[in-house]
């Protein structure tokens, strides 16, 4: 199977977590602390992926300047886009408590599209990284795929619950999240095709940009929302997620 197709399928798997989370939220109401705990675990896994998979690889391929420049650029672009989306109702798209913000549009009305675009904003850098990890015939980074999957589940849970409360149909809810899952797979496929044969400095910048965007996303959305509900244990659960990813990366030879 061509590497680009493999990349697309792995990206689709990471995006499918959104659909899975939406399906769970549609049929049952999970305890808020459980959802927050999953979010904290996913945060730890993503932090590990940023540190050991993305930044370390970017440094090894491109050196300091491309890595530092890409890292800052990714964080700046993500932050500006996130600030714009927050004004249209996507500020708490990863909200673990399933409670709408009275100051923001409802998740199922004007904010529904903003939440979907926000989820796409969160997922594109992660998916591109999955595609890049397969360049040169390398095996996919299991820790990165696990990080993407675990970060997407609570987003699907919380956002789909808000959409259902606002009266959105099952077709609308699963159409939105299914579309974003497909876009995640497409981003991984395009990332693999676009960077095949690229200079190491280009790959380094790409990994660093994704790392900066992901770390900014964690600080802006996942960590605050996880702490809001699971604050007593959020730190410990995040550390466990970091240790899990670290173990997967080293035992799996990533």
Key features of this structure:
mainly alpha; 254 residues; 0% strand; single chain; 81% helix; 8 helices
Can you tell me about this structure?
The chain is mainly α and 254 residues long. It has eight helices and no strands. Helix 3 (64-90) packs antiparallel against helix 4 (110-133) and helix 4 packs antiparallel against helix 5 (142-165). It is globular. The relative contact order is 0.25. The model is unreliable at 96-110 (pLDDT under 50).
- Name the helicity range: over 70%
Number of strands: 0
| Structural class by sheet pairing and helices | mainly alpha
Q: Helix count?
A: 8
The major pleated sheet works out as: none
Rounded to an integer, what's the Rg over CA atoms?
A: 17 Å
How do the helices and strands follow one another from N- to C-terminus? Answer: HHHHHHHH
Please indicate the percent range of residues in DSSP E strands (runs of 2 or more): under 5%
- Extract low-pLDDT stretches: 96-110
C-alpha termini separation: 21 Å
What gross morphology would you assign?
A: globular
What is the arithmetic mean of pLDDT? 80
Question: What's a concise summary of this model?
Answer:
The protein is built from eight helices and no strands.
